[in-house]
Design goal:
2 domains, OB fold (Dihydrolipoamide Acetyltransferase, E2P), 7-stranded mixed sheet, globular, transferase, binds S-adenosylmethionine, alpha/beta
Length: 403
């Protein structure tokens, strides 16, 4: 598809998702033919090719059967047709990411250690994550299953990895940071297994709407910097009637929404699960001379109910929620709905037809239908899609709920 065709296709996809939401909210309306609120035109990404600032490469069996292939998975384990393809043809990935992946593949193919494909089969070399920024800085993170190796034995392979990327053939990648994480599970946080800086700078920095952001290896940052600016501008525009009150930024990552909206608000409170991201968010507020933002580490479902009880119902409160694909925990929705001060809630989702749909229902259904929910129901008032992911079927959808 041309990019214009992609945008038309995505706009229609979001319209269908919102119709599905309306049907869920009012089952009596079996076939709603039109939305009861405006869906604004999709905001295009200013950059269409090579926009990703983060790529996640798997290690698995390639088309030729080589178990040390670094790339993207195609097929499924269940259908026994899973293979790893190198992905150099993908339009959304910058070529620099593929260069690092090819080097990592050469390195692990020359290594005496095997790749770790299924944990029960053993093996060590696992995924590779590459992060880059607008200034061309590159961070690589290598994931490694320690199995029963001793720290000294692992140390030999870490040294070989550093030598390869700093003095050997991998030096063409000009890595600014090389991290290593020992991961005996699918995914470990920094707290569970520290990210070990083997070479270079501990952080990568990105600039959004004139604000500078420090990003640690474990922290979330939107994958498309230019389109993230468009997203935050769209959110600020939708939030313009809430100027001056308190903003709750639920699932705040490194504080990008909080900080970019800080000038509109008296006070901003961000809540985020990943501790490294919260440290980044606090640092980023200070770095940008922003003094009205505070950030709390923890699960939103644990932090928010206590926090809400300390906020007065006559306070002007707005919530912006941007959870991962798992959506918001029911306790988060209940705490937001039951607080009378919240008149407007902005929901940002990259998968609105997934778990987020459950949240839309929890926000908008009659209070009698959900245990513990006493607050007045919200209703959607406007939605705007923002294309953060050209050449894929996804985009972000921002929905404003009011009551
Ligand atoms: C899509 S990101 C949003 C980040 C932010 N709004 C931005 O634009 O940079 C979702 C964030 O939710 C966090 N998260 C996931 N589950 C959470 C939970 N239960 N409580 C708090 N934060 C959570 C993730 O760590 C991630 O940083």
């Amino acid at each position: 598809m041309t990019y214009d065709e992609q945008l038309l296709w995505k706009q229609e996809k979001q319209r269908k998702i919102l119709l599905k939401m309306m049907k869920r909210l009012d089952p009596a309306d079996t076939f709603p033919s039109d939305l009861s609120f405006p869906l604004l035109p999709i905001v295009a990404s200013p950059v269409r090719d090579g926009y990703r600032n983060k790529s996640f490469f798997s290690v698995n069996r390639g088309v030729d059967g080589n178990q040390k292939t670094v790339g993207f998975l195609v097929g499924t384990e269940r259908q026994k047709n899973l293979i790893c393809v190198n992905g150099g043809h993908l339009l959304n990935m910058p070529s620099t990411h593929n260069v690092v992946a090819r080097c990592y593949e050469d390195f692990i193919r020359a290594s005496p250690l095997s790749s770790c494909i299924l944990f029960i089969d053993g093996g060590h070399w696992r995924e590779l994550v590459i992060r880059t920024n607008q200034s061309g800085h590159t961070m690589a993170i290598v994931y490694f299953h320690p199995q029963s190796l001793t720290p000294d034995e692992i140390g030999i392979h870490k040294t070989a990895l550093v030598e390869y990327f700093t003095q050997g053939p991998g030096s063409i990648c000009q890595l600014d940071s090389l991290y290593f994480q020992e991961t005996p599970m699918t995914r470990c946080s920094h707290k569970q297994s520290p990210y070990q800086l083997l070479h270079g700078q501990p952080h990568i920095y990105e600039e959004v709407l004139g604000f500078k952001f420090r990003i640690s290896p474990d922290s979330f940052f939107q994958v498309n910097q230019g389109a993230a600016e468009a997203l935050y501008r769209a959110i600020a525009e939708l939030n313009r009637d809430s100027v001056g009150g308190t903003l709750l930024d639920v699932c705040c990552g490194t504080g990008a929404v909080s900080i970019s909206l800080s000038r509109q608000m008296d006070r901003v409170i961000g809540i985020e699960l990943i501790e490294q991201a919260v440290e980044d968010a606090k640092y980023n507020a200070a770095l940008n001379g922003v003094h009205n933002c505070e950030f709390i580490a923890g699960k939103a479902e644990v932090v928010l109910p206590n926090l809400m009880s300390g906020l007065h119902s006559h306070d002007a409160l707005t919530a912006i929620v941007n959870p991962s694909r798992a959506g918001l925990h029911y306790r988060v929705v209940r705490a937001l709905r039951n607080h009378r001060g919240i008149k407007r809630l902005i929901y940002v989702s990259c998968k609105p037809d997934g778990e987020a749909m459950r949240n839309f229902y929890e926000l908008c259904c009659r209070s009698a239908l959900i245990k513990g929910v006493t607050g007045k129901a919200f209703r959607p008032t406007v939605a705007v899609p923002v294309d953060l992911f050209p050449h894929t079927s996804d985009c972000e959808l921002v929905i404003v709920f009011e009551r």
